[in-house]
Amino acid sequence: MALGVIPFFKKLIFTSDGPLFFFTDSCIILGYAMIPCILLALGGNLVDGPGSSKLGLRTTAAIIFGRLLLVPPVGLGIVTLADKLGFLPAGDKMFRFVLLLQHSMPTSVLSGAVANLRGCGREAAAILFWVHIFAILSMAGWVTLYLNLLF
């Protein structure tokens, strides 16, 4: 951020005709390849199937229950409180919908990549698999509720 704030460094690194733009361009190219590489790593952890992790059925079910059924009502409470306190733009229902929707989404694939770096890739891949499968059902319910509340 310090480089972007100082105009001299910003022109030197972040403009396309700057002498150090190759560094920025290299980071952009690596960024494009990051998500496919993470998906390959997570897929490699699921080579034996999602049931090959050392987590038990109760632990997996508890994580799915917590992520898909307990977090969204907490998010609804937070967004409602923020609205009552005047922190949200007045009358912007789409903004509220996006805030509510982010609490209902399944866990990010990037969290699986971090778990993979920590040595828990197989377990994280199994959890991500099952959370995304069950999110198909829960997302339909939460989106319906949010739309009924907002519109």
Structure description:
This protein has 151 residues and is an all-alpha fold. It has 2 domains: 1-45, no CATH class; 51-150, no CATH class. It is 76% helix and 0% strand. The chain contains 7 helices and no strands. The protein has helices spanning 2-5, 7-13, 21-45, 57-84, 93-104, 109-117, 121-150. Helix 3 (21-45) crosses helix 6 (109-117) and helix 6 (109-117) packs antiparallel against helix 7. It is flat and about 55 Å long. The chain starts with a helix and ends with a helix. The mean pLDDT is 89. The chain crosses the membrane at residues 20-43, 55-82, 94-115, 127-147.
Key words describing this protein structure:
151 residues, mainly alpha, 2 domains, 76% helix, 0% strand, auxin signaling pathway
Note the run of SSEs as H and E. HHHHHHH
Class from secondary-structure proportions: mainly alpha
Shape: flat
**Count of distinct strands:** 0
Total separate domains: 2
Helix count, per DSSP? 7
Low-confidence stretches: none
Beta-strand percent range: under 5%
What's the main sheet like?
A: none
Helix content: over 70%
Output mean pLDDT.
89
Distance linking N and C termini: 39 Å
Radius of gyration: 21 Å
